[in-house]
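Bumping with the actual sequence this time:
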Amino acid sequence: MEFYNPRYFWLLLLVPIMVGWEIWRDRDRRNSLQFPGFALLNFRRSRVRAWSRFIPLALRSLAVVFLVVALARPQSFSKGEQTTTEGIDIMISLDVSGSMLARDFKPDRIEAAKKIGIQFISGRPSDRMGLVIFAAEAFTMCPLTLDHATLINQFNSVEMGMLEDGTAIGAGLAMAVNRLVHSDAVSRVVILLTDGMNNSGEIAPYTAAEIAKAYGIRVYVVGVGTKGMAPYPVQTPFGVRYQDVEVQIDEPLMREVAQLTGGEYFRATDNKSLEAVYAEIDQLEKSKIHVDEYTHRSEEYWLWALCALLLLAAEVIVRYVGLRVLP
């Protein structure tokens, strides 16, 4: 509740003045003699009547308080928001080839990509998002959805060996683009994460990028892998061993793919830099949210004014009716 004219509360200072004045007048009346003789005086005045003479004063004081509150115009109000979101549709295309098990990320590239990707998804509740994985072929794990809980579950379920090994970057990009072709979102984006060079699939990465450009879809490419050597898992007669292998990412081609579609190319060399890449993409692709605030106010002064009138009526009844019948 708010008060439209709170300055009227200064009038409450009249209440103690009024009470003090009435008490002083009552004492003056009790000390004066208004009868021709003592025989007419009743010195056995009841205790009830002695205290009841203050009831009209209390009622009048309360009436003044309620009247002042009414003058201050109490108002109840409720606030709300009308939000219009121009959403962004985002498909993440994730490389799940065997090289994503390299340990230059902690615990490895694929797990780091999953964890940081889930953080990115959780930070964009207004956008539809989906997931495509690719190795020697591409597969849609989750189409565009606002049900981010389901999308995150699909992210967590991604494992090595789900697809035949290889790196079909063009197929992974083309599959993600295909999921965005019929979207009517203001902005459509593909985030492509890969750690290698295109060596599988029937669609070249540049051809997939041209398709994306034709449909106005931006592609952000993230090269995942340290610069130089990285420990890769190698199957030996004694089990899996890690061997340092040179990291090879076709960065010139990845830059062309990104620039052709109006996107950007990033290189992530560890967990921290991958988080920074996602944070930069998050800033580049912000949803446009328009918020209209509204406030509904309702006048409540009439209730206080009504109470004041009832209290004044009660004072009159008590003073001129109630007190006359008391002993």
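The tokens above came from a reply further down the thread. The chain has two domains: 2-78+294-325, 88-286.
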